[in-house]
């Protein structure tokens, strides 16, 4: 039977001052989904590897199947597929795990059906899957995972996603400390009301970050990577946050922040050497406070999800 | 005696979603300052034209003299100058009247002294003058008046001003209705605390506006020109605001908002014809509600303050 295998990258949502509106994709890792056409209708999740048995195989709860079903519903199609998911990134880490699965599934399904959709038009289906996986239909992981680079989610009603330029030589370091932080807890510490003054500071910084990306101005990017409305409240949930921040900056990072709702931290750097040194510096602090940590670093992924193989 | 005459343009601060961080300059009008070297030290405001006698001639209260004095203090100079100010824009209109005077004075003084400062380095002196004129050292009028184009004030501590690109063919229409709106009143209706959700919406829109300016994407600029944290509260102070807004958009404006703290309204449009039609549409609504209005339209000024004449 005909089959397609697709890859979708891990992503960093929020991006410090870009709280709830920005995300970017990283080359370091991602999820892979293989789809095989079936003779009869229906989506079946045949296997999931790399999840330690934690993810649901039931089609109505599985993020890959939910995403593909949303696409089939739009097409009025009842094509059947077997789904084989290989997780390349850890669950609940804040690196867009569910998003990468949904996006890889959609990229593969779109190709399997003869590319009925433009890449960007797959976004609503991925958002529908995020709603099932995370309880909220955020786009700040699925948009960069699908499109690559930095994605700005200007609005949801209607969806308005803008792909932003990526300065050459911009690297990301990810530090994933081994402890669990529930998204619900990470959300619950946020304030419903914030000082007007903070909103203005945040606006200024996000505007600076966008200008910095367009200008390839690393200094401006660095000055702009400050989050005054989420990070101060979330940092208390993250052991060693301020020591790690200090160490990453001393090692040369342009800036850092919480990846998604954590516990993974991200840092942006100019060049591979600094990105590597930043990872080492973070690892040292985490080991001092007795936390194991996985470190990844890579360039920003600019092509998003792509097809690995078709038969 | 040696003399220099300089011009500085009117400006629109806030720019809708750019509340408190953005401003741009317009070609339509501005202030002119002529400085003449004196033999003895001291700044003397000799004459002010076009202010209907409302502006102070005392050097310590006059925005031109305060700005020049700040510059002289920095240089450790006690050069004396006679100051002749010609107001080309109305006071208290929300078009950066005090900023244009201060900036024109600084541009002239800098040239008179042999250009000891880069243009951008004159900003702190202009901000010092704004503190005296407005009670707050805002930079969102003085920065675009000095530098031209769109200016982003990312931060004040330290001052971080970024000049943004201007899409070709972007026009501004200004509608100055004849009624007084005190800046203090316009400030007092603002909220100290705002919903986190609004801060995120505002961030998304300002990020969209910046991207739109870099991409010359008029549609994106149009979608992004929405202010959810200041305009809804200030609109109640402006008779006919929502009817005018509707009329300007119907006439083809990309978007509109309150210029500075009002009462002047601004609209951005693609091309001269639309900018003119937008002005007519606004005038019609204002005349229906019995308000006289002055209408101006022009391209965005991209060169900022400049020297008109030196002798």
Describe the secondary structure blueprint for this structure.
2 copies of one chain form a homodimer.
Chain A: E1 3-13, E2 22-38, E3 43-49, H1 63-75, E4 80-86, H2 97-112, H3 123-134, H4 142-147, E5 150-156, E6 159-164, E7 170-177, H5 183-188, E8 193-195, H6 196-215, H7 218-224, H8 231-234, H9 241-250, E9 255-258, E10 265-270, H10 272-288, E11 293-299, E12 306-310
Parallel strand pairs in A: 3-4
Antiparallel strand pairs in A: 1-2, 1-12, 2-4, 2-5, 5-6, 7-10, 7-11, 9-10
Helix pairs in contact in A: 1-2, 1-3, 2-3, 6-7, 9-10
Subcellular location (chains A, B): Cytoplasm
Pathway (chains A, B): Amino-acid biosynthesis; L-threonine biosynthesis; L-threonine from L-aspartate: step 4/5
Binding site for ATP (chains A, B): 90-100
Give start-end ranges of low-pLDDT stretches of chain A: none
- Shape, principal axes of CA atoms of chain A: globular
Structural class of chain A: alpha+beta
- CATH architectural type of the largest domain in chain A: 2-Layer Sandwich
Largest interface: A-B, 39 and 39 residues
User: Oligomeric form of this entry?
Assistant: homodimer
The overall pLDDT of chain A, averaged over residues, is 95
Helix content of chain A: 25-40%
Task: Tell me the name of the CATH class of the largest domain in chain A.
Answer: Alpha Beta
Function (chains A, B): Catalyzes the ATP-dependent phosphorylation of L-homoserine to L-homoserine phosphate.
Binding site for ATP (chains A, B): 90-100
InterPro entries (chains A, B): GHMP_kinase_C_dom (IPR013750), GHMP_kinase_C_sf (IPR036554), GHMP_kinase_N_dom (IPR006204), GHMP_knse_ATP-bd_CS (IPR006203), Homoserine_kinase (IPR000870), Ribosomal_Su5_D2-typ_SF (IPR020568), Ribsml_uS5_D2-typ_fold_subgr (IPR014721)
EC number (chains A, B): 2.7.1.39
């Amino acid at each position: 039977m005909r089959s397609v295998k697709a890859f979708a990258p891990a992503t960093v949502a929020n991006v410090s001052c870009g709280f709830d509106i920005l995300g970017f994709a990283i080359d370091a890792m991602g999820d892979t989904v293989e789809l095989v056409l079936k003779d009869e209708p229906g989506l079946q999740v045949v296997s999931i590897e790399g999840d330690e048995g934690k993810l649901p195989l039931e089609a109505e709860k599985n993020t890959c199947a939910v995403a593909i079903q949303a696409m089939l519903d739009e097409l009025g199609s009842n094509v059947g597929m077997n789904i084989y998911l290989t997780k390349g990134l850890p669950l609940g880490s804040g690196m867009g795990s569910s998003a990468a699965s949904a996006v890889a599934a959609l990229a593969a399904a779109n190709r399997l059906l003869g590319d009925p959709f433009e890449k960007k038009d797959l976004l609503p289906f991925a958002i529908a899957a995020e709603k099932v996986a995370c309880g909220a239909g955020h786009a700040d992981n699925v948009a960069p995972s699908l499109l690559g680079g930095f994605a700005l989610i200007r609005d949801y009603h209607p969806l308005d996603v803008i792909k932003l330029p990526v300065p050459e030589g911009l690297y990301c370091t990810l530090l994933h400390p081994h402890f669990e932080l529930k998204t619900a807890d990470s959300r619950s510490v946020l304030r419903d009301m914030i000082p007007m003054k903070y909103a203005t500071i945040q606006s200024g910084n996000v505007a600076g970050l966008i200008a910095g990306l367009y200008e390839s101005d690393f200094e401006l990017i660095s000055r702009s990577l400050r989050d005054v409305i989420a990070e101060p409240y979330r940092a208390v949930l993250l052991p060693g946050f301020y020591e790690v921040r200090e160490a990453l900056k001393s090692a040369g990072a342009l800036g850092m922040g919480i990846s998604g709702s954590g516990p993974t931290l991200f840092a942006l750097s100019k060049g591979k050497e600094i990105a590597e040194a930043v990872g080492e510096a973070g690892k040292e602090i985490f080991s001092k406070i007795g936390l194991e940590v996985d470190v990844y670093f890579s360039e920003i992924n600019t092509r998003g999800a792509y097809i690995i193989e078709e038969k």
